[in-house]
Specification:
The complex is a heterodimer of chains A (477) and B (296).
Chain A (H helix, E strand, L loop, with lengths): L4 H22 L16 H7 L26 E6 L4 H17 L3 E6 L4 H9 L6 E4 L5 H6 L7 H7 L8 H6 L9 E13 H6 L9 H11 L1 E2 L5 E6 L10 H8 L4 E2 L2 E2 L5 H17 L1 H9 L10 H4 L2 E7 L1 H9 L5 E4 L14 E10 L6 H13 L1 H11 L6 H4 L8 H11 L3 E2 L9 H15 L5 H20 L2
Parallel strand pairs in A: 1-2, 1-3, 6-9, 11-12
Antiparallel strand pairs in A: 3-11, 4-9, 4-10, 4-11, 5-6, 7-8
Chain B lengths: L2 H21 L2 E2 L7 E2 L3 H8 L4 H31 L5 H9 L6 H11 L6 H8 L14 H11 L2 H12 L3 H9 L4 H29 L3 H10 L23 H11 L3 H25 L10
Antiparallel strand pairs in B: 1-2
The chains are: A alpha/beta (477), B mainly alpha (296).
């Protein structure tokens, strides 16, 4: 049968409509360089004359924030994009207000609530962005590898900024392929939250320090309904539950993600041991029971969070949970501790995973000297970091701010400051595919815990292959 | 006269399509200029992509199950509504109303209704001695649960069928009845031929929409996973549970905007375009749209 031409045309147009959304999203075009910022039009002058005023707030005691001694103050307008929202955005506004008060010639325009994907789209279209605070912890490789973030090396050298003031792991993770393309600005640190009342009722006086202790205590803390379903859980070992993600768990055994530019998940035996232990833990409670119990729990970010309601006695989470509990369940009797580690790696106890936030200069910035002034203030000014820590409840990333007596923190929060100071702090790799390695591993891990993952060795090898293939697609020859 | 329309077509349809095809042959991360890499994206797509098969399979499942179920239900409901003698307007409004609810709101409400632990659906089932399933948290039931959602909001196509059914001449039904046709025969030989153009429209729109199925699955995964906060990146929850709700366009989104592989995402879009075109061509051929007079 011959197709009628008009009907073919109709079918083709319908198909075009079907693909338009995807086409439009990828048809933004290459970097145009258009839309040039005019907000920092004066920054050239500023950069040539340096900065006379102190960058930081009056409370700052960090001498490194003084970017210059020239008599003429810096002038210009900067545009700052960040990912914070609501209460946290207010905190950023507060420290930026302090920056502006200390630098009357500089105006900072803020655009909040922008994730890394939004920021990359904006930079690629030449939008008016000078300074970026990048959250999420895993997209720096994309930003730096693509040149969206400028190399801060020349500015750091020119300014004489002492990098040794930063905490080691966040500082290392703020560079990509040897290029210092950002500076760390706060970090999220993971640990163990435990319900003191539930542990006490079960006869425990201390939180677990090893994974085996965690399992033993969790099984004893777990209670069941008459029909055999779970009533309360000592610890939820299901991957995918709240912060049970591949990144935070890697720190419990010090497992490596990459060996050079290749995925090392199948070659570092720590991963296989960890996954086998976790699967055995799941099986002892019962996958189906855990699945049913987990499905009925409240949302992680709501007041119905299972730890806050007492449905789960112990939980892996980040330091931000302290602020959530203060807000949503202030009467909860709980403690915090470093997350347990593998018994054969007991020396790792006290550390954990740190996922940093970064601040950098976008390639669209027109005056890097002026932009660096704000970057340095946000990343290195003790007063600014203390304010952000007290307001946002994240971990500061300089030695001085970590030790500052001005920090207003609870005992539960102090645990995370101690973890941040540990020599055994790990982080996730910065690669061209963002969270690709973590997502790929978690996906297989969830299959494996369900019993559908097949042979673990072969499965992890495929995880490596999938990660390497995806990386090759992004950065291969 | 046609110039504005042709300009619009060129700018908003032809250019994006051509650009998309071009990008599909490049390595492009949105932040750097595209780099020509030939067929490497397509080679990866057909030989190495770890999830594209699962995503395509899920999408195909929805096309094969969700579209017919919605259409049949909408037709049946429209047929019942034509028989309403009293308060017809009220009942039409009641069954159309769910289609007016913003999609995200309706999905969130639906997932909460079917929450295995706290939802009223399982609570009612428990009252009658039935242990409720995990619904959106069970990989085997997640897609069927979405079908229930699709049926609930089928008012958009129901209203079109209703209009068409009300337009069927009663004389033809009466003549067929006089000739001895029973109810089933009257539906087969009188009602369905009148519905044929509307039916084709519903299938075409349904297939296109479902091949691009995104919002419903994404929101359902996000809410059911218990990680719907602003701090959680969408790629961390898409597909939950265990990729059973991972659709083709979701995977395209993840590769494009989470893995920053816009060139590869473009190749996924091109394949979707081709599949959609073939699907529609076969469908139109089946309905006789390619006959010389072009009438369905």
């Amino acid at each position: 049968m011959k197709f009628h031409r008009s009907a073919w045309t109709g079918a083709a147009l319908a198909a075009v409509a079907a693909v338009t959304l995807a086409a439009c999203s990828s048809a933004a075009g290459p970097t145009t360089g258009g839309g040039a910022s005019n907000s920092s039009a004066d920054s050239g002058a500023a950069s040539s004359t340096g900065a006379g005023a102190s960058d930081g707030a009056a409370a700052s005691t960090d001498k490194s924030t003084d970017t210059g001694t020239d008599a003429s103050p810096a002038k210009g307008t900067l545009t700052l994009w960040h990912y914070y929202t609501d209460r946290e955005a207010d905190a950023v506004q507060k420290v930026v207000d302090q920056f502006q008060a200390a630098n009357p010639g500089i105006t900072v325009k803020i655009t909040g609530g922008q994730g890394s994907q939004d920021i990359s789209k904006a930079i690629s279209t030449g939008s008016d962005i000078d300074v970026v605070i990048l959250g999420g912890g895993s997209d720096l490789g994309v930003m730096c590898g693509s040149g969206a973030f400028q190399d801060l090396g020349p500015q750091i050298k020119k300014d004489g900024l002492d990098l040794s003031q930063f905490v080691d792991t966040p500082l290392k993770s703020s560079a990509y392929n040897g290029v210092q393309c950002s500076l760390p600005l706060l970090s999220d640190v993971y640990g163990l939250f435990y319900n003191k009342d539930l542990l006490s009722a079960a006869g425990f006086t201390e939180p677990p320090k090893t994974l085996d202790e965690l399992e033993t205590m969790a099984l004893k803390l777990t209670t069941y309904n008459a029909d055999g379903s779970i009533k309360t859980l000592g610890f939820n070992p299901m991957m995918g539950f709240y912060e049970n993600q591949s990144g935070p768990w890697s720190a419990a055994v010090g497992a490596a993600w990459m060996a050079g530019d290749k995925s090392a998940i199948s070659t570092d035996s720590a991963w296989a041991k960890l996954i086998e232990w976790q699967k055995a833990f799941v099986d002892k409670v019962g996958y189906s029971k855990l699945k049913a119990f987990t499905a009925g729990l409240g949302d992680e970010w709501s007041g119905d969070n299972a730890f806050q309601t007492g449905q789960v006695a112990m939980m892996m989470d980040g330091e931000w949970r302290v602020a959530f509990i203060e807000d949503q369940k202030p009467d909860l009797h709980y403690g915090t501790a470093p997350f347990p580690v593998a018994a054969d790696k007991a020396d790792l106890y006290g550390g954990g995973l740190a996922m940093s936030t970064y601040v950098g200069i976008a390639k669209t910035a027109k005056g890097t000297d002026l932009a660096f002034k704000l970057v340095k203030y946000l990343a290195a000014d003790t007063g600014a970091l203390v304010t952000l820590t007290n307001e946002i409840k994240n971990i500061p990333t300089t030695q001085a701010s970590l030790a500052s007596p001005d920090l207003k923190i609870s005992d539960q929060f102090r645990t995370f400051l101690d973890i941040a100071k540990s020599p055994h702090v790990f982080t996730v790799p910065q690669v061209a595919t963002g969270t690709g390695p973590q997502d790929t591993l978690l996906n297989y891990w969830e299959e494996f815990q369900s019993g559908a993952g097949g042979d673990l060795t072969a499965g992890l090898k495929k995880v490596d292959d999938d990660i390497d293939n995806a990386l090759a697609l992004s950065a291969g020859p | 006269m046609l110039t504005p329309a042709l300009a619009g077509l060129a700018i908003f349809f032809v250019y994006p399509l051509v650009a998309n095809v071009y990008y599909s042959f490049t390595r492009y991360n949105l932040l750097q200029a595209p780099e020509w890499i030939g067929f490497r994206n397509y080679t990866y797509l057909f030989t190495k992509d770890p999830k594209v098969v699962a995503a395509a399979r899920n999408t195909l499942w929805l096309v094969v199950i969700l579209v017919p179920v919605r259409i049949v239900t909408a037709m049946a409901m429209a047929g019942l509504l034509t028989r309403a003698k009293r308060a017809a307007g009220f009942w039409r409004t009641v069954f159309y109303l769910p289609a007016l609810i913003p999609p995200v709101a309706s999905i969130v409400a639906f997932v909460f209704l079917f929450n295995p632990g706290t939802g009223p659906v399982n609570a009612v089932l428990k009252l009658v001695g039935i242990k409720g399933p995990l619904w959106f948290n069970d990989p085997a039931l997640a897609k069927p649960s979405l079908v229930l959602l699709g049926v609930w909001v089928m008012g958009d196509i129901m209203i079109i069928f209703l209009a068409s059914l009300l337009d069927v001449p009663q004389e033809q039904h009466e003549a067929a009845a006089l000739d001895g046709a029973n109810a089933a025969q009257r539906i087969r030989y009188v009602t369905l031929p009148h519905l044929r153009p509307v039916l084709l429209f519903a299938i075409v729109i349904g297939v296109i929409d479902t091949l691009q199925y995104f919002t419903e699955a994404a929101v359902a995964s996000s809410v059911a996973s218990g990680r719907s906060g602003v701090s959680v990146q969408l790629n961390q929850v898409l597909g939950y549970p265990r990729d059973s709700l991972l659709t083709y366009t979701e995977w395209l989104y993840v590769r494009g905007f989470s893995n920053f592989q816009l060139g590869y995402a473009a190749s996924l879009a091109v394949v979707l375009f081709v599949v959609t075109g073939v699907f529609l061509a076969l469908l139109l051929r089946r309905f006789g749209a390619f006959s010389p007079d072009g009438r369905v």
